[in-house]
Structures are given as C-alpha cells and as structure tokens.
Amino acid sequence: MDLDPAPAPAQAPVPPAVVFVHGMRTSSAIWREQLTHVHRLGHDATAVDLPAHGALHGERFTMPRAFEVIDDAVAAFGPDRPVAVVGLSLGGYTTLAWAARRTPHTSRLAGVIAVGCTSDPKGKPVALYRDLAQGFVNTVGGARTAMSRMSDILRATSPLGRSAQLVAPAPGGADLRKVAVAPGQSAEIHRPGWRVVTDALTHLAGRSSLADLRRVDAPVWLVNGARDAMRLEERRHLRAAQDAALVVVPGAGHDVNTDDPTSFNQVLTRALAAFSAPRTV
C-alpha cells in the first residue's frame, strides 16, 4: 500500500530586521536601549544617522539623502529580508515619506512604527518656524530672552516638538559632546546647529504626513506620549492609514523611547510580533 509522504513542516517566518531613525538634533545613540531589546527578541537591527547628524554631521540635511540612508540600511540586511522601520519625530516624518514612495526597498516593508509625528506639517506654521530659525543662523548671538519666549510659543506649534526648541548656539557653533553613535562605539560628534533645523523644515514644508500615510502599503503603528503636544491630529492620522494602530503611552512626552523606555520597548515587542504574523487589515 502506497502512503502519501508526510507534509514538510512549515517554516517559521523570518522575523523582520529593524531600522531605527532618530529625531532632530540627536543621533543614532538615542536608540541604544531599543537596539539591545530587539536583539534579545531575535531581530537583527541597526540605527542610522540622518544627514547632518551623528556620523553624517558633515553633510546637509535633504530628504532625498535621508531616503538613501534608509535604503542603504534596508539593503544591508539582504535582498529578501522583511524590514520594519521605527522613526521618531523628524525620523518619523522621514520614514513615512520614505515608505510612501513604494520602491523596491519599500516593497520589503513589514511595518512602520511612527513616533511623535501625528501633526501634519502641511498647513502648519512650518515655513514661519523655518524662517525664524534661518534668522538665527544669519545673526551672530541674538537675545536669549527673546529666543526663550519664541521657543515657548513655537514648541507647541512646530511639527518637530521639543527636539527643535530654540537654543542659543555656542560661540562659533562649536557645541561638541561625547556620545555613543552605536553600541560599543563612541565618537566626538558635532551637535547639529540651527542650519539643520532650517534645512529639515524646508524639506518638510508643504509635505503632508496624512498623504504619506495613505500611500504606505504596510501596517503602521502610531505611537505618542500622552503629554506630547504633537498629538493634535492623531485620530486623523489613524483614519488615513490603510492598516493602523494607535498607542498612547501614559506620562511620556515627545521622546517616548527615552521618557519611558520600558513601556516603549513593550510597544516594540507587540508591534514587531504583529508585523511578523500574517497580515490582516
């Protein structure tokens, strides 16, 4: 009697690799705890430096160059590896714009975690904020009191939140600090000055995160801190996405991953598990 061969055991899905994209005037170093966490979960992961930040501090920020940085990080995991991208603030807006392009690199997208970026730049006073920052770039020194007051006013309206608050530059712009740019690696990094703010806002002005969300062909988790002023349009963003979830972390502000890393890592765990499962809308 002939017997049918036993079916081959189903292979477990390969967990997506993870790319972390930081916010304005920081670097890949902010993701140190998250890199450790996702590695323990079994995910390959990397954190990139956007142009004008971290290891790329000698470059000017442009959105096309930022896309290249994410493309290179995705490509480094191999041609067939699914990838999840986690972006905070400027990194979140950049990630949504990158994912909306639908290129061969984005076709491997398992999901997006967009953090602190649910206030649509289009129609907001982005151009005003950019021009104000440009004024500080063009003027040596400036009145710290006036800058402080403008910071209080604009921090609530800027789509970049407190990471872009007005801070008087050090004399000559030489504001250096020792930071870790990757696990086990450190370097003397030039903290980006106001030039990067004007460059980034120039590339954000007129761009709509809602429009980008509508074009993302992957699950999107929107993550906000409960105390973040940028939650203004989180429900509109939730409705705009094809496949989305919204998570609000109690007690956290704009920088959720550093305000409450334990809760944020729990969100990462759940989101990456969802991205690894068969997709349902």
Please state the CA-atom Rg, rounded to the nearest Å.
Answer: 20 Å
CATH class: Alpha Beta
Please tell me the total number of domains. Answer: 1
Helix and strand content put the structural class at alpha/beta
Report the CATH topology name: Rossmann fold
Q: Work out the helicity level.
A: 25-40%
CATH superfamily: Alpha/Beta hydrolase fold, catalytic domain
The count of β-strands is: 8
Unreliable segments of 5+ consecutive residues: 140-190
Mean pLDDT: 79
Give the N-to-C terminal Cα separation.
Answer: 46 Å
- CATH architecture title: 3-Layer(aba) Sandwich
Total helices: the number is 10
- Strand order in the largest sheet: 2-1-3-4-7-8
Tell me the series of helices and strands, N- to C-terminal.
EHEHEHEHHEEHHEHEHH
Largest β sheet strand count, sense and barrel closure: 6 strands, parallel
Keywords: Hydrolase
Protein name: Alpha/beta hydrolase
Organism: Myceligenerans indicum
GO molecular function, one term: hydrolase activity
Description:
By secondary structure, this protein is α/β, with parallel strands linked by helices. It has a single domain (17-124, 172-276), classed as Alpha/Beta hydrolase fold, catalytic domain (Rossmann fold). Helix content is 36%, strand content 17%. The chain has 10 helices and 8 strands. It has helices at residues 32-40, 63-75, 90-99, 126-138, 144-155, 194-204, 209-215, 234-240, 256-259, 261-276; strands at 17-21, 45-48, 83-88, 109-115, 176-182, 185-190, 220-225, 244-249. The protein has a 6-stranded parallel beta sheet, with helices on both faces. Strand 3 (83-88), helix 3 and strand 4 (109-115) form a beta-alpha-beta unit. Helix 3 (90-99) crosses helix 7 and helix 4 runs antiparallel to helix 6. The chain starts with 16 loop residues before the first strand and ends in a 5-residue tail after the last helix. Residues 140-190 have low confidence and may be disordered.
